[in-house]
Each structure stands twice: as C-alpha cells, then as structure tokens.
C-alpha cells in the first residue's frame, strides 16, 4: 500500500520578500522521508520474505529438510531421463531449491537482529554448502549431464542459453574434481568442507579488535579508543582522525600480527592451492579466473592477463601517483606534523585534507539536498526515463521483515508489469554490519507453468534513521553508495533469464560490478542530480557550482587512491598464484614496494584485515576492470544524454538482460559494439583522473 503524499513547507525571509517553497514528494519519496507505518500486530505472521516456515528460527530446519527432499527427487529425475533440455531444467530446479534456502540464510545470518535467527541461518548455510559439495562430486548426476554434452545431436538442438547453462553446471563439477578417482574425489570434498571452516574463521578474524594495555598509549589519546578496564580495544584504523598519533597508534595496533590468524591464512591459501591442483589447475588463481573477462580473445592465460592489466595501469599512473603523494607530503608539512615522512596511515587523511583545502568540500552542506526520499525519487525518475521501470512502495505483512524500519519496493515495468521486489534495509541498528551490500534472496527463472519467478533482493546500507522532524540526510558518499547498490538491484530485476543459475548478478565477478559502478557516473552528473537534489526544508535546488566542485575534488589524489587498489589486487593475485615459499607478510612487503609507493610498517600484517580474500579470492582486480568498462560505457553511450531511452534499452538488451547466461566480454562487445583491449581499459581509468568530465557540466545549454 502506497503512503499518502506528504508536503514539507517552510517560510524563508529576506530583506525584500516573504517567499514560500513547497516540496511535494511522490509516494516513494514520502515512504523514505517518513517513519515507517507500524505493522498490524493482529495480522498473521507470514514468515520472513513471506516464507511461512520462517516465522521462527526453527523454520530453517524445516526449509532445509524440504529442500533436501526436493533435491533427492530432482537428482533421481536427472539421472533417469534421456539427455535433453529437461536435463538442464532439472539441474536448474535443483539449484533453485537449494539456493532458496542458502541465499536467504546467507543474508539472515548477518542481517537479522535476533541471534537465534542468525545462528539458525548460519547452520543452514553450512549444511546446504556441504550438500552442494557432495552433489558436485556425484558421479551419476554428472554422467547425466555429460551424456547431454557429448551427444552432438542433442546439443545442437539446445538454444544458446540452455547450452551455456549446461556448460556452467559441468564446470562446477570439473572444478570439484568429478573427473578424479574415488579417493581423490573424497579428498576434494574434504578440502572443500575444510575451506568452509577456514573461510569463516578468517573472515571472523578480520573484524576482531586488538587489545593493548592502557598504559602503553599516551594518556591524552586514550579517549579516542574503546577502554575496557585496564585495556584499550582498537577495532579500526581511525584513518580520518586529525591526530597523527591516533592514526599511527591505531594502524600499528589494529594491524599487529595475530599468530593464529596468520596460521589460518596460510592454511586457507594452502588448501585453495591444493584443491586447484588436485582438479587440474596450475593455481587457485587459474581456477578462479576461468569464465571471467580476463579470458580475452588475445590471451587465454587469465592470471597473466590480470597481472598485465595491473602492471600497465601502474606504469600509466606512476607520474600521477608520485605527484599525489607529493601533494600529501606538502600538506603534512603545512599542518606541522611531527614527521614529514608520508606513511600508510596518512594516505586517507591527507588526501582528504588536500581536497578540502582546494575545493572547500563540506559534506554537511550537501546533506540537506540529499534527503533519502529525494534520492529515491531521483532513482525512480532516472529508471523511469531510461528503462521504463518505476518503484511502488508496499506495506510489509507481519513477520515478513526483520526490522520495522525495512521498506519494501515492488519494481514495475511500464508494459511488462511486476519485475520483482527490493527490500531496503537502509538504517543503522545495533549488531547490524556497517557495510553497504546487495543480497540475492530469490533468483528469477521461467517456471514450468510459464509464469516467471520474480527475483527478490535486499539492499543493506548504514544510514541514520529519520526522526519526527528530520528525514534521513545523506552526504555525497552515501548518495553515491545508494546509486551503486541500486545498480546491483536493477541488474537483478532486469536480468530476465530462463534459468536462475545465471540470474541477475550471478555472472562473472569482474562483470557483476559494471552496472553498479556505472550508476556512480549517473550520481555525479548534474543533469541527473538536478532532477532530485532539493533542500528538504526550502525546496531550493542544489547549486550547480557545488556539484562541479564535488566532481573536481574527486580527481584530486585519485591516482594514489587507484594505485592503492592496484596494490590490493596484485597482492590478491600473488597470494593465489603459484606458492611463493615465503610468509604472507614477506609477500606483502614485496608487493607493497612494487605496487604502492608508501613504506611497509614493521610488525604489521595488513593482509589479516583483507576480508575480500574470502568473497573475492583471486578476483579483487574486478573492481578496477569493472570501473574501466563502466567508464567506457558511460562515455560512449550516456555521457551525451544520461536519459537517452534508446541507449537505456540497448543497455538492458545487451548487458542487464542476460545475467550470466552469456560470456561477459560478449555483453560488453554488444554494448560498445567492439571488444576493448587491455590498453583501452587502462586508458579509460586514467582518463577519469585527467579530463574535465561532462558529469560536472550541464550540456543542455
């Protein structure tokens, strides 16, 4: 049910006149600029996401058992029917049945405020993960798929999407060691199960604070940290603190090596490498990069492609990076620091200081123009003009959401009708992770009855909740993050694939970030921003000069910021390449020296805070490659007119609609109408740092 339209009226006085400014919000804007209507407590509890079993934590066990029964039936169907399209459809049903539990549980274990729900979801994730690993080494199940792929006549009768999905399922079998003898298959299963435990142990460890005796720190900075009795607890880098001693202390203490976590990382990398070699790959990186955009027409050695990309980018950035570091050093000297040597704990603080001095960017001056409701209206208007898609606010049923602050949006196409649902978990609360992310809850697919299974996703942000008098106000970074995450959501909504195995963001990692990063370009284009950025009290539009300053400021020290990402990506590649027979810290020292430019700090182990090693193992480069592709798409297709409907339709048709059912570089080729070279990808990233972007101008004049 849509909320009634609200009006914010204020009176502004000046020496000449009394003027009245009225801002009228659409139902979507009103829903996000007001407190959520309370759920009717007398309604029947429909369960999380409308799944009746999940009205209590015990429902996860019920959901698991149901999925396992369906799995047994579908395995029997797959193994006892002749090869054909039905084989692939059955495999996809099998995947869908398990994913409906695993994907939902994957969100609940981090996003639900009730520990009982989180614990039940965590167990469900582990149990379903174990089942998947066993299915991936089920010889009879694999044989049913191999019979299809080996039968040329049957294979030729399949449509391209069905054939690709069949090949992707076979790839899952192969990387799990299905071709091995029984003892080695058992070893592969054991390694995969061990990896699940190591992944959880390392990921949990990356977030744990470090403790130090209170007396070890100067008294005048102790208040900057969490004090627990005689100990001080440091759970972050405090990179934006104006006190140099606070930044240094936080860096050295938070990154102090934890011997058990170092051992865990060693075991994790060893286990990954052992598994990759067992199933026939040179290294884990070779295994992970199969099927990504690193698989180029001119180079099929994927690891070398990624490293060449990172090295080319480093070469192109070297002069610019040195210039950026010099700017930071000058600023450090200007601010009378204790030392003039630029250290890793200085990067974030002094790059921000340089930007602030040059462009006088004060985020608090922007926030009144970026109320959450206004930003949601902006997204609604942009998607409507570009893609014919709009949001409709719906009132959740009792038990459907995990917090009363969660908003539910139906995504509706102007001619196709309902596309799916987005649950917006945008506001901070205790025990909620401080991260912005997109979760798939249910993938889209064409069902046997001809109906389409609508995708369901959650967008999680960490915004301040609205009050009775003030809506949630976003700073520019928060606004860009909202646009970024909504790019993922629209990928999920518009990826109308036949099979859920390749729905929406279920595509190669280095392609999955393209739609989200592309949205950042829209978020900083004045023509787009001018449609929605209005002062929440006066209704006045955000001045064009403020948008221009913001865009220009982002390029200051941009080369050094990009080079830091190159360092992380290179470290990730080397860790997952051929074993180095050196400690992970020694590897970090060498890679930092080659790819960063600021010195390694003795007795620190930054790698133990590199949580992306879990979800993005050997794929951290994806952010950079996706940004390069997004930049090229923006410049070629949307820079001239960000509301061009023809380009929007092409974007949907060539890039969003396929999910993972098409080779990623073929989708890029369809959009750009050519395949970019590595050099062009590097040049696109550098161009974003060097040129005056049209995103800071209004070309309508």
TrEMBL record:
Keywords, sorted A to Z: Acetylation, Calcium, Cobalt, Hydrolase, Iron, Magnesium, Manganese, Metal-binding, Metalloprotease, Mitochondrion, Protease, Transit peptide, Zinc
Domain of life: Eukaryota
Cofactor(s) required for function per UniProt: Zn(2+)
Single annotated GO MF: metalloendopeptidase activity
One of the GO BP terms on file: peptide metabolic process
Predominant location category: mitochondrion
Pfam families: Peptidase_M3
Enzyme class per UniProt: hydrolase
UniProt-listed InterPro entries: M3A_MIP (IPR033851), MetalloPept_cat_dom_sf (IPR024079), Neurolysin/TOP_dom2 (IPR024077), Pept_M3A_M3B (IPR045090), Pept_M3A_M3B_dom (IPR001567)
EC number: 3.4.24.59
Location relative to the cell: Mitochondrion matrix
Reaction catalyzed: Release of an N-terminal octapeptide as second stage of processing of some proteins imported into the mitochondrion
Stretches assigned to the Peptidase M3A/M3B catalytic domain: 238-685
UniProt GO cellular component terms: mitochondrial matrix
Cofactor binding notes: Binds 1 zinc ion.
SUBUNIT field: Monomer.
Family: Belongs to the peptidase M3 family.
Function: Cleaves proteins, imported into the mitochondrion, to their mature size.
Name this protein carries in UniProt: Mitochondrial intermediate peptidase
Source species: Oncorhynchus tshawytscha (Chinook salmon)
């Amino acid at each position: 049910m849509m909320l009634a339209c609200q009006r914010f009226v204020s009176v502004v006085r000046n020496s000449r006149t009394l003027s009245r400014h009225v801002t009228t919000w659409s139902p979507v804007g009103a829903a996000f600029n007001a407190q959520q209507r309370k759920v009717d407590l007398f309604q029947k509890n429909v369960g999380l996401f409308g799944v009746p079993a999940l009205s209590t934590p015990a429902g996860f066990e019920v959901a698991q058992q149901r999925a396992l029964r369906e799995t047994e039936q579908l395995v029997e169907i797959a193994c006892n029917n002749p090869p054909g399209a039905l084989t692939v459809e059955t495999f996809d049903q099998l995947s869908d049945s398990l994913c409906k539990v695993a994907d939902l549980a994957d969100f609940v274990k981090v996003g639900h405020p009730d520990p009982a729900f989180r614990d039940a979801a965590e167990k469900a994730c582990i149990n379903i993960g174990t089942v998947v690993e066993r299915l991936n080494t089920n010889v009879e199940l694999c044989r049913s798929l191999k019979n299809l792929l080996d039968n040329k006549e049957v294979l030729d009768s399949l449509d391209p999407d069905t054939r690709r999905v069949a090949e992707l399922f076979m790839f899952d079998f192969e990387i799990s060691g299905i071709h091995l003898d029984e003892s080695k298959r058992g070893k592969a299963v054991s390694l995969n199960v061990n990896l699940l435990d190591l992944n959880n142990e390392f990921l949990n460890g990356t977030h744990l604070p470090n403790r130090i005796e209170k007396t070890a720190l100067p008294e005048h900075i102790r208040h900057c940290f969490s004090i627990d009795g005689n100990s001080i607890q440091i759970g972050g880098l405090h990179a934006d603190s104006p006190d140099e001693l606070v930044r240094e202390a936080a860096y050295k203490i938070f990154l102090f090596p934890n011997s058990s976590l170092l051992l865990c990382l060693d075991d994790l990398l060893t286990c990954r490498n052992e598994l990759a070699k067992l199933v026939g790959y040179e290294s884990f990186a070779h295994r992970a990069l199969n099927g990504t955009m690193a698989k180029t027409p001119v180079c099929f050695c994927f690891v070398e492609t990624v490293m060449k990309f990172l090295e080319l980018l480093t070469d192109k950035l070297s002069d610019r990076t040195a210039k950026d570091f010099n700017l930071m050093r000058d600023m450090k000297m200007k601010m009378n620091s204790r030392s003039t040597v630029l250290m890793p704990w200085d990067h974030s603080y002094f790059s921000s200081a340089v930007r602030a001095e040059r462009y006088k960017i004060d985020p608090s001056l922007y926030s009144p123009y970026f109320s959450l409701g206004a930003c949601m209206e902006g997204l609604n208007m942009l998607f409507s003009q570009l893609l014919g898609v709009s949001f409709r606010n719906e009132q959740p049923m009792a038990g459907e959401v995990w917090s009363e602050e969660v908003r539910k949006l139906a995504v509706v196409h102007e001619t196709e009708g309902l596309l799916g649902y987005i649950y917006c978990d945008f506001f901070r609360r205790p025990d909620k992770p401080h991260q912005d992310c997109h979760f798939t809850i249910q993938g889209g697919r064409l069902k046997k009855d001809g109906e389409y299974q609508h995708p369901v996703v959650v967008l999680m942000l960490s915004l301040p909740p609205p009050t009775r008098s003030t809506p949630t106000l976003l700073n520019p970074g928060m606004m860009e993050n909202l646009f970024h995450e909504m790019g993922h959501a629209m990928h999920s909504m518009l990826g109308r694939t036949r099979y859920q195995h390749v729905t929406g963001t279920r595509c190669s990692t280095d392609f999955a970030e393209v739609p989200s990063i592309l949205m950042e370009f829209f978020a900083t284009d004045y023509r787009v921003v001018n449609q929605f950025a209005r002062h929440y009290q006066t209704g006045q539009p955000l001045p064009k000069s403020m948008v221009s300053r913001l865009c220009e400021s982002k390029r200051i020290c941009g080369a050094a910021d990009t080079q830091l990402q190159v360092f992380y990506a290179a470290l990730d590649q080397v860790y997952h390449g051929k074993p180095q027979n050196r400690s992970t810290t020694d590897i970090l020292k060498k890679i930092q020296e080659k790819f960063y430019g600021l010195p390694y700090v003795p007795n620190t182990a930054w790698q133990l805070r590199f949580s992306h090693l879990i979800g993005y193992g050997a794929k951290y480069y994806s952010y950079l490659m996706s940004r390069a592709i997004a930049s090229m798409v923006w410049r070629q297709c949307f820079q001239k007119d960000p509301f061009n409907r023809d380009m929007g339709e092409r974007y949907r048709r060539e890039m969003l609609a396929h999910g993972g059912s098409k080779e990623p570089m073929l989708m890029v080729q369809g959009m750009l109408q050519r395949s970019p070279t590595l050099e062009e990808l590097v040049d696109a990233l550098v161009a974003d740092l060097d040129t005056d972007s049209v995103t800071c101008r209004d070309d309508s004049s």
